[in-house]
Specification:
With 238 residues, this protein is an alpha+beta fold. It contains three helices and 15 strands. Helix 2 packs parallel to helix 3. It is globular, with a radius of gyration of 18 Å.
């Protein structure tokens, strides 16, 4: 996924009301930007952190700029994390179409946002006349509490548990169902469920896996120009 223009470097002053952040530009100006992330963003709210924001170039938008990336590393070893939850579906689509996720190759058609389940929309539906339909639910991941390990979720998500139940229903109907966790961090090798932060989601995940729902996780290479597939990581149980 390419950004429409190079991102702008700034410093985080504070994130508040979930969708707002005050930032300081390199010229000293202080502006409020949109934070497209409804989660807790644990470990991603430290004042003074270097960040990158995008310019919508839309003067009619209430907040012209959006928070895209935060550096949670050190001066010697930066670690860029993408925080915009609107990007993972696009990243997943590009990765699947490019054949970078072997388990999801070989389908003739890919559709986004298809209605299914109980008033839900599946993020990606893969179809082929010679295969069972494949329902792919995409989740954004950016929680890093241990080096090399990414976790989901970073707060309670009843909606996420509902999606797992609906994917299980698809398997019961003879379809294929997949959870794809898009980790907007590159330097990770493993992924697991943060069962201490949401035991209910953890239980739903375990149950869904037992019923045949598949789970895959992919890390992303992050730059101020793009966020793209880097490598697949192991899905483990803690």
């Amino acid at each position: 996924m390419q950004f429409s223009s190079s991102l702008i470097r700034a410093k985080l002053i504070k994130r508040y009301k979930r969708f707002l952040a005050d930032v300081e530009l390199e010229n000293g100006d202080i502006i409020t930007v949109h934070c497209a992330n409804p989660g807790a963003m644990l470990g991603l709210n430290k004042p003074g952190s270097f960040i990158w924001i995008s310019d919508s170039k839309n003067p009619k938008r209430k907040l012209q700029y959006s928070l895209e990336i935060i550096d949670i590393g050190t001066q010697e070893k930066p670690q860029l994390v993408g925080i915009n939850t609107q990007h993972p579906n696009k990243i997943a689509e590009e990765s699947i179409l490019s054949g970078l996720i072997p388990a999801l190759t070989g389908y003739q058609n890919l559709k986004r946002e298809v209605k299914y389940g109980q008033n839900s929309r599946i993020d990606i539906l893969l179809t082929d006349e010679n295969k069972a339909d494949c329902y792919v639910e995409v989740k954004n991941v950016h929680l890093i509490r241990q080096e090399g390990l990414a976790e989901f979720p970073d707060c309670e998500t009843k909606r996420g548990a509902k999606h797992l139940d609906e994917l299980s229903d698809m398997v019961a109907q003879g379809k294929r169902a997949v959870m794809l966790y898009v980790i907007q961090v590159e330097d990770v090798q493993k992924f697991s469920i943060a069962n201490d932060l949401d035991p209910n989601y953890s239980n739903s995940f375990i149950k869904a896996r037992e019923l045949g729902v598949e789970a895959y996780a992919m890390a992303c290479k992050i730059t101020s120009q793009s966020i793209e597939f880097s490598h697949l990581v192991d899905v483990i149980e803690k």
